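Re: your question about ethanolamine kinase

S., sorry for the slow reply, the queue was backed up all week. Below is exactly what I fed in.
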Amino acid sequence: MGGVKIWSAIEVAEEVGESCNSDIPSSSLTVDISLPLPQMKPRIIELCKDMFKKWSQLDESHFSIETVSGGITNLLLKVSVREYSGDDTVTVRLYGPSTEYVIDRERELKAIRYLSAAGFGAKLLGVFGNGMVQSFINARTLSPSDMRNPKLAAEIARQLCKFHQVEIPGSREPQLWNDILKFLEKASALEFDDSEKQRKYETISFKEVQDAIFELKDLTDLLDAPVVFAHNDLLSGNLMLNDDEEKLYFIDFEYGSYSYRGYDIGNHFNEYAGFDCDYSLYPDKDAQYHFFRHYLQPEKPQEVSVEDLEALYVETNSFMLASHLYWALWALIQAKMSPIDFDYLSYFFLRYNEYKTQKDKYFLLARSYVAGSKTG
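Result:
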């Protein structure tokens, strides 16, 4: 993830192909994500024809392209192709500019193969210079309020339980603290051209942030949380629902890694706050227990013991604090690197202050729980 070597999507695609004994088409073409859609269109068509031989002879009139969604770190396009033998639809995902400073694409591409084989997300169809082509999912993106719907919350919990059982080959070492410390290293060495931004940036005590990270790591280490392959970014925009079939999809595994079970759940609960970061919407204990029951025993949610609920409650809310530190530091790097017009610097303070607001309550909870389980 260093700022020096930018990984090559093509090399990664070839490696992924070899490791999975399959042929993923690749192209060295790149698409300028800053172009307006009409100007991007010919390049997308050229890319599709370069990658998929069956389309190489079709002229432009056979292709129609529309925007599905523009996330903070990527742009999703729906490409519909009218063929003589019938219609075909794919999704082209363009990586956001400078995202290689915060996202390990190699890790992502390797995981996608195994997750898609287990029935998660879209199928990987091809890789190019700054993005990938995937199968099209016919569903709508959830809103933060959808996630609070008890029926949907139960389904998200059941799916997450399955997701956490997927085995991804390679090291199973949890990456959470490694990633946070990498972010800290980058975030603490920035310089802004804008003097107002620089002034705000200089009010941050990175010594204080570093102490917070190590203090929280020491606390969560006592909880002995299970390590799973985690999604790590389960916000409403990465959940899709086909209302007719009542089928839920997890998408976008770009932050996926081996991590702690409680972190994935706590990070998801933080996303109840939505884009306005209204943390009064964070789920209360009853809503969390409802989620935990369907996560721990998808078939028999009512049979989950009070002890198991309590343990997962402590674990989740301790790691929820780590989610604030992770995205706070992420935002600082984005404030410097991202061309997207978003006040990332203020977002740092928002998340870091929420960490400080919640810290005492959940540190106390975790410490008394650990003390109790030692004597119990």
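Confidence is low (pLDDT under 50) at residues 1-7. The longest strand covers residues 74-83.

Happy to talk it through on Thursday.
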